[in-house]
Amino acid sequence: MGFDNTLGAVLVAEVFSGMSYSVASMQTYTYYHRSPHDGAVMKFTIFALWILDGLHFAFYSHATYHFTVTSVMSPGSLTSCPWSLALDLATGDLIEIIVSLIFAYRIYRFSSTLWPLIFIIAPSAASFVGAVAITALALKTPNFADFHEKYSWAWYATFSLQAFTDCAITAVLSTLLLIRRTGIKRTDSLIRTLIIYSVNTCALTSSLAVASIITYATMPHNFIFFAIATVVPKLLLNSLLALLNSRDMLRDMHAGQVVSIHISALGSMLVPRSISKAPGVQATRVHSGGVGYPQRVAAPTPDISQGAWERPEDDMA
Question: Which of UniProt's keywords are assigned here (predicted)?
Answer without folding.
Answer: Membrane, Transmembrane, Transmembrane helix
